[in-house]
Structure formats: C-alpha cells, structure tokens
C-alpha cells in the first residue's frame, strides 16, 4: 500500500478546508532572496510574498534573530534596552503626533487592539470598512470582513462602503467629482449608524486598498474619508499590514501618499520578515488613557528577539536603500506591464505603486466583465513555469503582484516574460 501523500496527511491533521495556493499545491523546502525552492530542487521566482520584504532568509535578519535567541528571550514585562530602542527607531519614522508603539504578534491582533482603542477613545462601537476588505481573523474582525466567507454575520454596528476607482468611473468623471460621490457613501453610513443610536468609533482601511485590487483612487478621497469619520467623533485607522515598510517606494508608509496622518496605524506581515512581529503606532495620550482602564500586555509581542528582528529589517531597508529600489524597479515593472497591456486585449488596467501591482483582466473593455477563470489559469500557468503570483478582487480577476523589496530588473524581466507567455496561452 503506497504511503499517504503529504497533502493527505495535511488534510488529516489540519483539515481539508485549510487553504493552499494553486490548483497543484506547492511543497517548498527552502528560500533565498527572491527565490523559493521546492522538494525536487526546482526554484521559483517569488512575485507574491511581501512577508519576507527584505528577502527570504535574509542573512542579517537571521543572524540578529539567532544572536538574540542565544542571549535572552523573555516575557515582555521586563525592562529591555533593545525593545525600547526598536520602539524609538520605529516611532521616529512617523509624523507627529504618532509617537507610541504597542506590540503584538500578528496583524489580526494589531487591528483588534486598534478597534479596542478606537472604541475606548470615541465611546462608540460603529465601524466603517470597505465593501471588499480583510483586516484579520478574530471574531470582531471576521464580523466586519467582506472579502472572505465567514460564519459570523456582518455586524449590525458596522457599515461597508464602496471604494472609488478611476478605471471603473464613468467616462468624463473628474477626480473631485468621484471623491464627492464616494464620500457621500461614508456620510450615509455615518448617518445610518446615528439614526440607529450607534456612535461611530472608527474608519478602518488599507490606504493602498490591496484586497480591493489596488484601485486608482482620486487624490483627495482618503483625506476626505478621514475628515468625515473624525467629524462624527470616530478615529481613522490605517491598516499598513500590506502597504507599509517601503512597499510603495516613495514613502515608508502607505498613508503618507495621501497627505493625512491617521489616528492609529497598524503593522504586521513584513515587520519581522517572517518572524511573528506586529503592532500599532498611535499617540501617547490615547495609550496612557487606555492604560488607566485596561492593562494591555502581550507575552510574545515585542519580545527581545522580536525587537532584534524588527531592528534588523529596518537596517536592511536603510542600508540597501530598498525604498529607492522599490521606486526604480517598480517604475520599470510598471513600464513593462503597460507594454503587455497594449499586446494582450484581456488586460483592462495596470495599476500599482512601488513594488505592488495589480493587473485587472477583463473579457471586454467596454463592459469590463471580470475574466476570473482566465486569471486563475494565468496564476497556475505561471506557477508551472517557475513564477509565483496570486489573484484578488471581487471578480477574482485581478492579478496580485507583490515581490520582496530586493527585486531587481533581471528578476522583473523574467517575471514579465513569463507572464507574457501565460497571457498568450489563454
């Protein structure tokens, strides 16, 4: 009798509903820089994972992790020089009044904590999110999630609003007009809450709108949205779990492109380059007031090892000038993707910022009918040809392209050439 496959064993102990990428699951055993290697020794160009933002198994990060783990790793309720130094260095990258850090292990925890702070500060419970969002897997986040199936019904205290996209706007609509049209949805959401006696607590969005498909939002929309929630007594929470740490190239933080300072910024995924490190940044007065009513601590969030890893990630971003790399290589990728759009009619729109791109596939340029099945074929064909990407969007038709920040032009050429072949094979 043949031995059970790894997939069968996984299903037995983790359940068959535990998600995997690709129609043919990938068994990876090693990573290095922008490369992943499977059990047979084949290498794959990683154009999807932003968790290892400074590259898989980055030597500087690994060495910092090892050195600190060999020295001390302890509960977070002790004094530690490196933890304080890391918090000082991290908060210094934000504009005033964002000057205080709270550490967690995951982005879900960070967003959960952010909602607690917002409800405490506002005295309200109402949450506004986008109509295609994911911010974490806790119960309170699941009940405001709109992008993934969940047994939790959408919360009565929450409202989901559409996000504007210049690509999908009616012809002739100006950015200012589009901003006002979609700001009206936020006003209506606030009014709906208030009519039911629900006090607004927060607007929670990713300012890059990654899960929504990286829509090209009008320039003033995010600032207007922040203005509206604050006028209603709520806080503006920017989820930087995907858009932070230099991903956009021109700024370290995604919200900095919108000329607005959030009340709370949540961090995660790339923060530890694969080590479970996350947290939020807010202002001291909120943390101090919250702390007088609730004792927050996290056994592992912000431990000495976590701080060493986080510091090492910032070292690499700075020393290797990865913001500049994201900007220059990102511009090159954007140029090459736009060239593909002129060749393949299935490409409706190419958009992105820095080293984060979205390519929307449509069956018809007039109707913009989502080409979901075609996107799935492209993703799986790319995997078979040694390049890893994914897809997103309500129509499951938007290719999601998000390589490590150490991505080079040579890597870009391999990626685009492979994508060209996959699109030609549709």
Describe this structure in words.
This protein has helices at 6-14, 59-69, 81-91, 107-122, 139-142, 175-195, 221-231, 284-291, 304-319, 322-343, 372-384, 409-424, and strands at 28-32, 35-38, 43-46, 100-104, 126-130, 158-161, 200-205, 235-239, 264-267, 278-282, 347-353, 356-361, 387-388, 390-392, 398-401. The mean pLDDT is 96. α3 packs across α9 (304-319), α6 (175-195) runs parallel beside α7 (221-231) and α10 (322-343) packs parallel to α12 (409-424). A seven-stranded mixed sheet has the order 4-10-9-8-7-5-6, sandwiched between helices. Strands 1-2-3-13 form a four-stranded mixed sheet. Strands 11-12-15-14 form a four-stranded antiparallel sheet, with helices on one face. It is built from twelve helices and 15 strands. By secondary structure, it is α/β, with parallel strands linked by helices. The chain folds into two domains: 6-54 and 321-424, Aspartate Aminotransferase, domain 1, CATH 3.90.1150.10; 60-319, Aspartate Aminotransferase, domain 2.
Task: Provide keyphrases for this structure.
Aspartate Aminotransferase, domain 1, Aspartate Aminotransferase, domain 2, four-stranded mixed sheet, seven-stranded mixed sheet, 426 residues, 16% strand, alpha/beta, 12 helices, globular, single chain
SSE inventory with pairings:
Layout: H1 6-14, E1 28-32, E2 35-38, E3 43-46, H2 59-69, H3 81-91, E4 100-104, H4 107-122, E5 126-130, H5 139-142, E6 158-161, H6 175-195, E7 200-205, H7 221-231, E8 235-239, E9 264-267, E10 278-282, H8 284-291, H9 304-319, H10 322-343, E11 347-353, E12 356-361, H11 372-384, E13 387-388, E14 390-392, E15 398-401, H12 409-424
């Amino acid at each position: 009798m043949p031995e059970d496959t790894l997939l069968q064993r996984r299903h037995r102990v983790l359940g068959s509903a535990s998600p995997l990428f690709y129609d043919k699951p990938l068994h990876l055993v090693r990573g290095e820089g922008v490369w992943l290697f499977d059990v047979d020794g084949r290498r794959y160009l990683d154009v999807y994972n932003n968790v290892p933002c400074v590259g898989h198994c980055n030597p500087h990060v690994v060495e910092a992790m090892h050195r600190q783990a060999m020295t001390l790793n302890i509960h977070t309720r002790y004094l530690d020089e490196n933890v304080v130094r890391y918090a000082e260095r991290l908060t210094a990258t934000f504009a005033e009044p964002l000057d205080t850090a709270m550490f967690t292990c995951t982005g879900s925890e960070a967003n959960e904590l952010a909602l607690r702070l917002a409800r405490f500060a506002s005295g309200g419970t109402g949450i506004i999110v986008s109509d295609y969002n994911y911010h974490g897997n806790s119960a309170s986040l699941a009940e405001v999630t709109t992008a993934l199936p969940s047994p939790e019904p959408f919360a009565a205290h929450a409202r989901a609003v559409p996000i504007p996209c210049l690509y999908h706007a009616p012809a002739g609509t100006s950015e200012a007009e589009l901003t006002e049209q979609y700001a009206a949805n936020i006003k209506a959401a606030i009014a709906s809450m208030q009519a039911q006696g629900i006090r607004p607590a927060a607007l929670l969005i990713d300012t890059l709108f990654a899960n929504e498909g990286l829509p090209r939002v009008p320039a003033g929309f995010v600032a207007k949205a922040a203005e509206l929630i604050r006028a209603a007594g709520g806080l503006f929470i920017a989820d930087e779990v995907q858009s932070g740490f230099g991903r956009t190239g021109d700024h370290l933080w995604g919200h900095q492109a919108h000329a607005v300072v959030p009340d709370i910024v949540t961090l995660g995924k790339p923060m530890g380059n694969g080590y479970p490190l996350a947290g939020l940044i807010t202002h001291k007065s909120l943390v101090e007031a919250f702390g007088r009513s609730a004792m927050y601590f996290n056994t592992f969030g912000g431990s000495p090892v976590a701080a060493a890893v986080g510091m090492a990630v910032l070292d690499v971003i700075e020393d290797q000038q990865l913001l500049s790399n994201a900007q220059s290589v990102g511009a090159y990728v954007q140029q090459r993707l736009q060239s593909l759009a002129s060749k393949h009619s299935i490409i409706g729109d190419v958009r992105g910022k820095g080293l984060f791109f979205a390519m929307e596939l449509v069956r018809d340029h007039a109707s913009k009918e989502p080409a979901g099945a075609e996107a799935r074929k492209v993703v799986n064909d790319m995997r078979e040809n040694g390049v890893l990407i994914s897809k997103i969007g309500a129509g499951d038709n938007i290719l999601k392209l998000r390589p490590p920040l150490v991505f080079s032009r040579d890597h870009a050429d391999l990626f685009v050439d492979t994508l060209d072949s996959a699109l030609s094979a549709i």
